[in-house]
């Protein structure tokens, strides 16, 4: 019994109590329904941002192992700056500074192309209102986590024996071919558990989007609790929803890690 996951058993028992309250108590049921309406937004933001973060991380990770000093230093600058800024600050900077600057640049490009052209007219009409807060936070989370994913990919690539690259080049492969067909497939397999852990972290950090008014489960909880003063019930249900999603994802990551370890043996 000492080896039993007691923390998980206790969490399940607490969860059962919450579920029982939601099913049998009308007020708790109403609160759950009001909050659960934002689950789709939370999942959409998490999946979209993480997909973009993995793509950014892969390319930046490749740049971090590049022999080209210019590419290496640009990638290193991005990683160090982004990792040194709190995610909340980065989200607000991108939403309220970077996006307006980008829109101004797009408008300027449209003016240079000429508003008499279809493309120029379309670019000149772009405004910050066309870019929703949800899209802004997706970009912000992707940029933030892209820096962390790049370090995971870099470590995975560098964990592959140097001789494999040399052998691939000796067989006539170019650097890109060797990286694509020999190094990356092995590196990705090794870093999958770490990527899974960051996906769980991304799910939790998606709650930060509430500061920009995006109606995820955290924002809906804040609004409902503020209007009804049922803070204990509202935030208890919110914590239960997050805990359920993160525990399930964490167990999935643990299972994946176990299978990959068995495969390597």
Topology:
Layout (H helix, E strand, L loop, with lengths): L5 H19 L1 H11 L2 H26 L4 H15 L3 H27 L4 H7 L8 H26 L3 H9 L4 H31 L11 H12 L2 H34 L1
Helix pairs in contact: 1-2, 2-10, 2-11, 3-4, 3-7, 3-9, 4-7, 5-6, 5-7, 7-9, 8-9, 9-11, 10-11
User: How many structural units, i.e. domains?
Assistant: 1
* Helix-and-strand structural type: mainly alpha
In the CATH hierarchy, the architecture is Orthogonal Bundle
Please name the fourth-level CATH homologous superfamily.
MetI-like
Radius of gyration: 23 Å
What features would you describe in this structure?
It is a single chain. It contains eleven helices and no strands. The chain is mostly helical. It has one domain: MetI-like fold (Orthogonal Bundle), CATH 1.10.3720.10. The protein starts with 5 loop residues before the first helix and ends with a helix.
Summarize this, please?
By secondary structure, the protein is mostly helical. Helices cover 82% and strands 0% of the residues. The chain has a single domain, classed as Orthogonal Bundle (MetI-like fold).
Descriptors for this entry?
265 residues, mainly alpha, MetI-like fold
């Amino acid at each position: 019994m000492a080896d039993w996951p007691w923390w998980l058993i206790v969490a399940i028992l607490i969860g059962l109590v919450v579920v029982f309250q939601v099913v049998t108590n009308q007020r708790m049921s109403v609160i759950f329904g009001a909050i659960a309406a934002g689950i789709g937004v939370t999942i959409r933001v998490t999946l979209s941002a993480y997909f973009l973060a993995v793509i950014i991380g892969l390319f930046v990770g490749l740049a971090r192992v590049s022999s080209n000093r210019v590419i290496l230093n640009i990638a290193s600058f991005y990683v160090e700056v982004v990792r040194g800024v709190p995610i909340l600050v980065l989200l607000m900077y991108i939403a309220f500074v970077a996006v307006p600057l980008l829109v101004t640049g797009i408008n300027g490009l449209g003016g240079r192309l000429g508003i008499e052209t279809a493309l120029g007219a379309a670019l000149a009409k772009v405004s910050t209102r066309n870019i929703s807060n949800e899209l802004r936070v997706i970009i912000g989370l992707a940029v933030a986590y892209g820096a962390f994913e790049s370090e995971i990919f870099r470590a995975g690539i560098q964990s592959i024996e140097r001789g494999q690259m040399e052998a691939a080049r000796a067989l006539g492969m170019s650097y890109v071919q060797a990286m694509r067909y020999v190094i990356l497939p092995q590196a990705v397999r090794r870093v999958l558990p770490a990527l899974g852990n960051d996906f769980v972290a991304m799910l939790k950090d998606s709650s930060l989007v509430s500061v920009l008014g995006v109606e995820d489960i955290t924002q809906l909880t804040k609004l409902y609790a503020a209007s009804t003063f049922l803070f204990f019930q509202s935030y208890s249900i919110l914590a239960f929803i997050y805990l359920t999603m993160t525990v399930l994802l964490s167990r999935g990551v643990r299972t994946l890690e176990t299978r990959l370890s068995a495969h390597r043996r």
